[in-house]
Write a structure and sequence with these properties.
This protein is elongated. Helix content is 47%, strand content 11%. It has a five-stranded parallel β-sheet with strand order 3-2-1-4-5. It has eleven helices and five strands; from the N terminus they run ααααβαβαββαβαααα. The protein is α/β, with parallel strands linked by helices and 272 residues long. The chain folds into two domains: 147 residues, Vaccinia Virus protein VP39 (Rossmann fold), CATH 3.40.50; 97 residues, Glutathione S-transferase Yfyf (Class Pi), Chain A, domain 2, CATH 1.20.1050.10.
């Protein structure tokens, strides 16, 4: 049994949808797709048994990491994504490879497709980013025919990205919260030595990863930088010195030059 999110709630989130669309359009997600996600597309297509004549929907398709490999099998593919810029890049990649498929702007939480319209519904490191997971899951089920296939690849807590976030949040973000927002006599100040030690380990991993790289993934700014920048650029406010991490400091400086950059303590009155 599934529980649907009330339609009024989804309608109230149009502002959030707009922010997500703008955020994903800001960076170079195609670089992430090419260097990290792209090899996963064919794996997902093969695991899902996609073949000639299948009706396939790729949800949160980005630049077509799963959609293009699916189309190469002879399937009839629709690639859908919230961000027009990503669809344009995907269409260019497909054209370069001589692949024909449809590209459709769509919100994964309110897909503009009929009930049971597809034999298979896929998403390769895509639908995992939607705000309301249950709503998106209901939509995947709705548009997939009975007996069809729903195939997803998502980051896991055990993977590299998951481990990076697991290290950053409790050991880089939390010390700042304790220092800036709790009274001096709070018992949580006793946590700081252990959290700061683990935070330095997290920064050491980042320092090593960024050696020889301008950005976190490849040579261009991407959503990976946006995500990891948030905790890292205010690390010193929690007592984590960046003096011993020159690669991290250089990376932070590069990210800070990007359009629409806003520090955590700035007031984004005219932003997203």
């Amino acid at each position: 049994m599934t529980t649907r999110i009330d339609a009024d709630v989804v309608m109230a989130d149009h502002g959030l949808e707009s922010k997500h669309r703008t955020l994903w359009a800001m960076g170079d997600y195609t670089t992430v797709a090419t260097e990290v996600v792209s090899p996963l597309g064919p794996v997902l297509v093969q695991a899902s048994g996609i073949g000639v004549g299948d009706r396939v929907l790729d949800v949160a398709a980005g630049a077509g990491n799963a959609a293009i490999p699916a189309a190469l099998t002879g399937a009839n593919v629709v690639a859908s994504d919230l961000v027009p810029e990503l669809l344009e890049r995907g269409a260019a990649l497909a054209q370069a490879r001589g692949v024909n498929l449809q590209w459709r702007e769509a919100n994964a939480e309110a897909l503009p497709f009929g009930v049971d319209e597809f034999d298979a519904v896929l998403s390769c490191v895509g639908v995992m980013f939607v705000p309301h997971h249950q709503c998106a899951a209901d939509e995947l089920v709705r548009v997939c025919r009975p007996g069809g296939t729903i195939g997803l690849i998502s980051w896991t807590p055990e993977g590299f990205i998951g481990q990076m976030f697991a290290m950053m949040k409790p050991y880089v973000a939390t010390p700042r919260f304790i220092v800036r927002h709790l009274p001096a006599d709070s018992p949580r100040h006793a946590e700081l030595p252990q959290r700061l030690a683990q935070g330095r380990k997290a920064l050491t991993v980042m320092e090593s990863h960024l050696t020889g790289r301008s950005y976190f993934i490849g040579d261009r700014y991407s959503v990976a930088d946006i995500a990891l920048y948030a905790y890292t650029h205010v690390a010193e406010e929690g007592g984590l010195s960046l003096e011993s991490f020159p690669q991290v400091r250089a990376w932070l400086a590069r990210v800070a030059t990007q359009p629409l950059h806003v520090r955590i303590h700035d007031q984004p009155t005219q932003r997203l």
